[in-house]
Amino acid sequence: MTKKPILDVACGGKMFYFDKNDKRVMFMDSRCFETTLCDGRYFEVKPDIIADFTDIPFEDNSFSMVVFDPPHLRMNGDKKPTGYQHIKYGALYNGWQDMLKKGFKECFRVLKTGGFLIFKWNETEVKVSEILKLTDEKPIFGHKSGKRSNTHWLCFMKEENSKHICDEFMAMFYEKLGKVGKS
Question: How far apart are CA 115 and CA 85, in angstroms?
Answer without folding.
Answer: 31
